[in-house]
Every structure is written in C-alpha cells, then in structure tokens.
Amino acid sequence: ESTSFAVRVAPLGPHGQVLVLAEDQTERRRVEAVRRDFVANVSHELKTPVGALHLLAETVQDAADDPEAVKRFAGRMQHEAARLTHLVQDLITLSRIQGGEPIPNPGPVSVDEAVHEAIDRCNTRAAAKDITLVAGGVEGLRIFGDEDLLVTALRNLIDNAIAYSPEHTRVVVSARQVGDVVEISVSDQGIGIPESAQKRIFERFFRVDAARSRATGGTGLGLAIVKHVAVAHGGEVTVWSKEGSGSTFTLRLPAHAAVPEPRPSSPMEA
Ligand code: ADP
C-alpha cells in the first residue's frame, strides 16, 4: 500500500514566505476503502434475497392454478424475506454499536440470566440438530454493561456453535471471574476454523465458507457484532480453534464491582 500526502501551501509573510502543510492521507484512504467495501458488500448481500423474491413472485404468478406449487413457492418467499429481515436487523445492531458511542443502558448484569436467556432463544435450533446446550459456572457472576447487548453477543456465539457443529454434539457456555474481568466462553465440538482465517473472522462479511454460511442462514455479521459489543464494554473477544475438533470463543468483560446491592422489595415485584 502506498503512502500519500495532501500538501497545502499558504502564503505567510511579505517576503514570499509560505507555510507548507503535509498531511498523511494513508489512514484516511484506508478508512474510505473499508467504507466503500462495506457498502458494496451490503448491496450485494441485499441483492441476493431481493433477486430471489422477484423470481419467486414471478413463478407464483405462473403457477396460479397449481395450489401445491403456490404453497411451496410462498414458503420459499417467506424464507427469503426472513433472511432479509435478519440481515437488516444485524446491520442496525452493528451501526448502533460500532460508532464508538457509549453502551445504551450500563448497569450490573447477571451473567446467569443473560446466558440462560441466550440459551432459551437458541434451543429450537439446537434441538433440530440434537445439540445439547449446557451452562456451567455462571452463578453469581455479574458484569457491568448492557444486558441486551450481552444477550445478543451470546446468542450470536451460541448460534454459530450450533450452525458449525455436527448433530448430536454439545455446546458448553461457561464463565468465571479473573480479577475484575468476567470471562464467558462458548465451546463447541464443531468443524473448527483454519488458523489462517482465525484473525479475519471478526471482520464484517468474512466467511470461511460462504456457501455453508448462507445455507445456515448466516449474515456474515454475527462475529463483527460480538466484537463490537466486547469493545463497547471495554472488553475483548478471542478465539481458540482446531480444525475438525471444535472452537472456543471467549468474551472478556468488566466485572461489576462487588458492591452488595440492596435487593429491591417493592410490591411491584410480587
Ligand atoms: P456467519 O453469519 O457467516 O456465521 P459470523 O460473523 O457469525 O458470520 O462468522 C463468520 C465466519 O466465521 C463464519 O462464516 C464461519 O466460517 C466462521 N465461524 C464462526 N463461528 C464458528 C464456529 N463456532 N465454528 C466454526 N466456524 C465458525
């Protein structure tokens, strides 16, 4: 990559002195290129389901006198529309958190509750592949952050663990506190991630195997969302993986200071 400078010359003194400002444009150009790539990727990802919907609508019209076919094509239209919704939802989530703005509702969040809520939301998909979701060691831990964002990040990690694992396997969500950091790990016994790809999987729209990702309904944004949730909390997400034997993603988030909080006991609670 070449380095480029923007040079500005401003007249300064009566004797023809000039002020020369050279500004390094390399970073600005890189950011521009990333933005352009992103817009191109989004357009491409949107075009695929929209194109499919167009085709299906035409086909339904042609098959008007065959109720069975109409039903089948309508089902596929629903599937494409769901994919579109998923993509738009992920884009909205990403745009909310990647701007470097503070997290929306910071406060103490029960890791136990967040993990169980995420597991509940993923249960149907897990059951369809006879994958067992297990939580361990999550009791009593609290992070300081945003509950919805934590659940979103965990759902994305668990969803991936299910999507990239064979049937009849286990996905384990475990947590522990190390100093003032809570570590939450999601481990699977799935296909794993080649070492060369491990540092790229958190990029928007990066997929190891695009066909496989689409087949499982992936948007290519899940891990980018997880990364931005971690960063927005002042934390991080890392991956350990071995091809053919599984992956472990670990979120490290700030623990809620161990200040004993009075339990609210308003009549509203009952
Ligand atoms: P996608 O919607 O494609 O799953 P993600 O951003 O969630 O997008 O993940 C990016 C890519 O990382 C996936 O396409 C897949 O190749 C790989 N990946 C993510 N999680 C796992 C996992 N648990 N096991 C194996 N590969 C994974």
Fold and architecture overview:
With 270 residues, the chain is of the alpha+beta class. The chain has helices spanning 26-62, 67-97, 111-128, 147-163, 195-198, 210-215, 222-232; strands at 5-11, 18-24, 107-110, 132-136, 142-145, 170-178, 181-187, 236-242, 246-254. The strands form three sheets. The protein has a five-stranded mixed β-sheet with strand order 4-6-7-9-8, with helices on one face. The chain has a two-stranded antiparallel sheet with strand order 1-2. The longest helix is centred in the N-terminal third of the chain and has 37 residues, at 26-62. The structure holds adenosine-5'-diphosphate. Adenosine-5'-diphosphate binds next to helix 4 and helix 7. It is found in: Cell membrane. It catalyses: ATP + protein L-histidine = ADP + protein N-phospho-L-histidine. Residues 41-257 form the Histidine kinase domain.
Set down the secondary structure blueprint.
Blueprint: E1 5-11, E2 18-24, H1 26-62, H2 67-97, E3 107-110, H3 111-128, E4 132-136, E5 142-145, H4 147-163, E6 170-178, E7 181-187, H5 195-198, H6 210-215, H7 222-232, E8 236-242, E9 246-254
Parallel strand pairs: 4-6
Antiparallel strand pairs: 1-2, 3-5, 6-7, 7-9, 8-9
Helix pairs in contact: 1-2, 2-7, 3-4, 4-7
The chain binds adenosine-5'-diphosphate.
